[in-house]
Design goal:
Blueprint: H1 15-23, H2 37-75, E1 85-91, H3 99-113, E2 120-126, E3 130-137, H4 141-148, H5 159-173, E4 176-181, E5 197-200, E6 211-219, E7 229-238, E8 244-252, E9 255-264, E10 269-277, E11 280-288, E12 301-306, E13 313-318, H6 324-335, E14 340-345, E15 356-359, E16 372-375, E17 386-390, E18 396-399, E19 418-422, E20 429-434, E21 437-443, E22 450-453, H7 467-480, E23 486-487, H8 493-497, H9 521-546
Helix pairs in contact: 1-2, 2-9, 6-7
Length: 547
């Protein structure tokens, strides 16, 4: 136990005069009586009660000494123990919304309260990106406010990065790391010898029923009559093991444009397309229409901003061959809303009014002063040292899903037999990485901006996915500011499906919050001292009344 003001311990010297006051006996009084017969009759009963009076006197002495000592220690302000430091990692992914996050906040509040005023706590949130919600602080209003502010995000949990960040903070203050999540984490999440502890907040079996929107994007349909005609594509999935029926409501600028009922297969998806016209906020909301439960609420709605736009003029540069790559790229450009595509084959001159170049040919094929989307090529002027890799090195490793270029692009279980990887040049950023290295890189600025894609369209299933036209639309928007595919931020499919990971060796479980005195240690010690002094007073006055 540590003391804030140990100088007050010098007051323990008051115990000496207290002890002396008890040892000094009062002088005996001499009383003259005419006869001793009455005293002889009561002498036996007085002798019997003397031992009891001595015991009471000794007990009163001990109570007085203990009371004075307790008051002196209370004045020295004991803090109640050693410094206790903890870094909490809170999972704020979409699957934590609702009951799991409420339980996690309540558990966190109890655990912080049980650590006492001398503790130091910090909070790291694991969402789309890890971030520090609370730096090291003592329990108090600031910590309580940070706990109340924790909310779920429409994203997965970057748990590896969050744990690494927490362990870095913990190493500076010799703190423990406690993870609050809704699914058990494998021990491999930590590289530290002292593994973090975890507290898992699950949901009952009935809570496995869930509906959610995992995709919302708009594009110009191929048969559009004008630039204002748009098509919204909404993807709804369910985690239920039985077929579900859902109600979908789509609004644009506050007005309902569609209200439909969807039938979803067990643990399946349904894609609904709705025609829209005009600008404003487009919102798609789904809710159960079969009376069954919906575990999460953060995934029930998705929204984006629709604005009037003009499609860019694109120069499609290729080597003149009739490969499938050119076919799929052109289809993706059309799906993204591009209506003016000028094909530049071989060494032909590109049109002067081209606003964006899509390059499928190796060599110096970029147009001067025009942003470029480079697909499976090795442009000399960018300094990309690309190399071809086979199927054994094309497994997807990481995706920068928070980047606007990959918004709404789902690359889960991507199959690629052949691809090119390259080291990101200085000033650029790698967005998609395979086992062999980066396969999607963006760099440059303004009219010199570029995006390089190394996944071979002819040796992968990327071009067969809905993600490909969405990616192309995002690239058009990034390079030319005229995207015809606008994607909303939605919860990841794995979060909505509530798929628990397979864990062979889990992190150790965190213990329940400790019990804590309802008052501070100085107040508790002072209260004990007052009780002991009250006991001493009661014993003393009772002895006097008895005599």
């Amino acid at each position: 136990m540590s003391l804030v003001a140990p100088v007050f311990l010098a007051a323990l010297g008051l115990l000496v005069p207290v002890l002396i006051a008890f040892l000094v006996r009062r002088p005996r009084q001499v009383v003259r009586v005419p006869s001793t017969m009455v005293w002889r009759l009561g002498a036996r009963s007085v002798a019997k009660s003397r031992r009891i009076r001595d015991a009471r006197r000794l007990l009163a002495l001990l109570a007085c000494l203990g009371g004075v000592a307790a008051l002196v220690v209370a004045a020295a302000r004991p803090t109640g123990g050693r410094r206790d430091a903890v870094v909490y990692v809170v999972d704020v992914s979409a699957s934590m919304s609702g009951a799991p996050l409420r339980e996690a906040r309540a558990w966190l509040a109890r655990d912080v309260a049980g650590r006492g005023p001398n503790a130091r706590v910090a909070i790291v949130l694991a969402g789309a990106e890890p971030r520090v919600a609370l730096s090291e602080s003592a329990p108090g209003p600031r910590v309580d406010e940070a706990i109340r502010a924790i909310s779920a995000e429409k994203a997965g949990a970057s748990m590896d990065e969050a744990v690494a960040l927490a362990e870095g903070m913990a190493s500076a203050s010799d703190a423990r790391v406690v993870v609050l999540t809704d699914e058990a984490l494998a021990a491999e999440v930590s590289r530290s010898a002292a593994k973090p502890e975890q507290r898992v907040f699950g949901r009952p079996p009935a809570g496995r029923d869930n509906l959610g929107v995992v995709g919302l994007f708009t594009r110009t349909p191929a048969d559009a009559r004008d630039d204002e005609e748009r098509e919204a594509s909404i993807t709804v999935v369910t985690s239920s093991t039985a077929p579900r029926r859902a109600r979908l409501v789509v609004t644009l600028a506050g007005s309902v444009v569609a209200e439909r009922h969807l039938d979803l297969p067990a643990r399946g998806a349904a894609i609904e397309r709705v025609g829209v016209r005009g600008a404003g906020r487009l919102v798609a909301r789904v809710e159960p229409a079969d009376g069954r439960s919906d575990a999460l609420d953060v995934d029930d709605e998705a929204s984006l901003e629709e604005a009037a736009r003009r499609p860019p003029r694109v120069a499609l540069i290729h080597d003149g061959g009739g490969g499938s790559a050119r076919y799929f790229v052109e289809k993706a450009l059309r799906a993204a809303g591009v209506t003016e595509i000028a094909e530049v084959a071989g060494g032909a001159d590109a049109p002067a009014d081209a606003e964006l170049a899509v390059v499928l040919r190796d060599g110096d094929a970029r147009l001067p002063g025009v942003p470029a989307f480079l697909i499976g090529v090795e442009p000399k002027e960018l300094g990309l040292d690309a190399r071809v890799v086979g199927r054994g090195e094309t497994r997807l490793r990481s995706v920068a899903s928070e980047d606007p270029l990959l918004r709404g692009v789902a690359l889960d279980e991507l199959t690629a037999l052949r691809a090119k990887v390259a080291a990101a040049p200085r000033g650029s950023r790698a967005l998609v990485e395979l086992d062999a290295g980066p396969a999607l890189i963006a760099g440059g600025a303004g009219t010199s901006s570029w995006v390089w894609l190394g996944i071979d369209p002819e040796a992968s299933d990327l071009v067969l996915r809905v993600a490909f036209p969405v990616l192309v639309g995002n690239v058009l928007g990034h390079l030319g500011g005229a995207a015809q595919v606008v994607a909303a931020e939605t919860a990841p499919r794995a979060e909505v499906m509530l798929d628990p990971p397979e864990v062979l060796e889990a992190l150790p479980a965190a213990s329940d919050p400790r019990w804590r005195l309802p008052v501070a240690p100085p107040i508790a010690v002072a209260f004990l001292g007052a009780l002991l002094l009250a006991l001493e007073a009661w014993l003393t006055f009772r002895r006097r009344w008895a005599t």
